[in-house]
Amino acid sequence: METGDIILTQEQMDKILEIWKSNPKAPPFLKDISKTVFDKEVDGRSREGKAIKEFLASQNLVPKVTQDYIPKEEIILNEEQKEYLINNSSTMNALEMSRILFKNNHLSNLSKEARSVNDFLKTIDKKVLYGDVDDVPPDIAYRPPKTFERMLFKINKYIHESIDKEKLTSRQKKEINATIGYVNTYRYIHQINTYTTQTDRELFESSFIRYTHDKSDLTEEEVDQYIILSTEVVISSSIQASIVRLQELLDDATDNPDNVKISMSLVEAINTARTEYNQCVIRQQKLNNDLKQKRSDRLKNQIKENASILNLVQMWKEEDSRQKLIKLADLRKQVLKDEIERLTTMDEVKCRIMGISPEEVLNG
User: Fold this and answer.
1) pTM score, two decimals?
2) 69 pLDDT band (50/70/90 cuts)?
């Protein structure tokens, strides 16, 4: 059998059928067949893979490929797991509890385990939940903008006054290109991928872009500090949400006179959260002011350096002009001197000065 440049021998075709018949209940993977027939693993796009698939197709057989979706068994939560979720749903989100319950820190928002937990949380009163059960980021790593157009779109999404693409200045182009570099740093991508809700991701991204989109001269150290500053924004938002949630629980607890101890605990928790929030806000203000001052000082130094260079250039230009004028004056003096000497050697001029013509001198 011939397929392109690959010709399957009778022996190879027999091997393929033998592998297939060895486990009739589950079709073999294409890579396992190719490893036996061609002594190497291939995929369905290779010439060998196509030859195997076409031969099997002629026999009304279809091999499995590694991309085939194999559904996982549905996760059913037991009573102990449900009780854990009820007790901790006010302080942790679905993904955090899933990783603890199933002892797997690599679970994502769209894993079977996290989905099962999230589905159960939807049956609990939303007032006691830590966050919105529907607020989950996509099950893919964050991909920062790498093109000018995508970065401009992101900036216009988060800033108040949009940048007109048709009226971009050279300065704005430089700033946008610089921002592309900032959001493609490893630390930025790592930090944004640590957030387990889409809201936190967007809050971090919007804060960082608003802080940096109009600064094309940031150092690596300053970029790291703006990442920290944006992280503090997310933290303060989370603390504020916790305060609101605790206050709602306190309001419900105070309606019941038997919940005095619970009320006291909630009041203490609210005071602690407010202290943390105030400290977080102070850190933000200090870091933001430090960054502004540091950049302001650097720009002032640059202006001084540029001014010094401009003065030197101006002085050089002035000195150069002065030297040229002196040189022209010297040349003029030299030309005048040469002309005077020439005139003083002329007999006719001498005779005229003496009142005698050349003819009179010659003829007597």
Assistant:
1) 0.53
2) very low
